[in-house]
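Input sequence (345 aa), recorded before submission:
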Amino acid sequence: MAEGSIRISSFEIKTASRREVAAAHALTTRLQAEAWPEDPPRALADWEGELRTIPPYWAVQRWVAWRGEEAVATATTYFYNTLQNRHIADLDIAVLPEHRRRGIGKELLARLVTACEEGGKTLLTFGTDSALPAGRAFAARVGARAGMVSATNQLDLASLDRALMERWCHEGPRDLFSLGWWIGPYPEEELTAICELKDVMNTAPRDELEVEDWTWTPEMVRQSDAALAARKRERWTLYARHRASGELAGFTKVFWDPAQPAALWQGDTGVLPKYRGHGLGKWLKATMIARVLAERPTVVRVRTANASSNVPMLKINHAMGFRLYKEWTIWQVEVASVRAYLGAG
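Predicted structure, token format:
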């Protein structure tokens, strides 16, 4: 590594010193400002709380690169503690701009690859931001191939066509479906049906990603709900129920962080295949945005992530006024290939 004064160590939020936690937070704040310049910095306590409340269906390992007492780079691996996709490790490496192209990222990558080998992982996946060209250059160096191109699309609520939203609400198929809300944790008595509903997202485009279907279990939902509650994040879920059968037919959800009150994240929207073609997607999203306007007046922008190949959802979002904010590429590469790039050491 070119910078001889750099040292790399594992980072565990539960055992790190207060000085180390503050330095890692300062690093994250700078990296966030580069990637999301519109957003205010996240407070130390809020950021630390998020790291302490990872749902157990993820196994997370982190490393930090230090120059003296300053944190200058970080790396994270996410392993799936699930029945599916146990061959995959998601990774993230981020280096401060003034320390890039000095070998720090490669040293961090070596830690990640060793952890993946020890964990029996065979495939690495990671995302790169179109606003940060260093990520694409990194992907080229390690021989990664693009698995999927997606986009963060943003809606400025000041430009929302409210008349259109009212029309979508009015046109909703009320004769066939009813709507209902889950605010916060999901009801225990419906967890099995909710898992089956959430699994509809397996029908969303995955392009060339070599991943297996994700199957939710009630315990995973409980873990996710507990993490959201601990982080004080709000989740609103609007669902559609088929009147004749009583079956859950579709849903949409949003997330709001009181510490970041101007932004709302649109989460998954899905409709079971047999109930498509009735305009449920538009009805759900229009009804959701109407409640946001009425009850969360601090929100000025809504962000969502969509695969660039997801034409039906993009059609709805573009009609609502969502516009491209930035693109992401999800890359994949075999662990063995990255080890060869690094050398056998």
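Checked by second reader. The mean pLDDT is 95.
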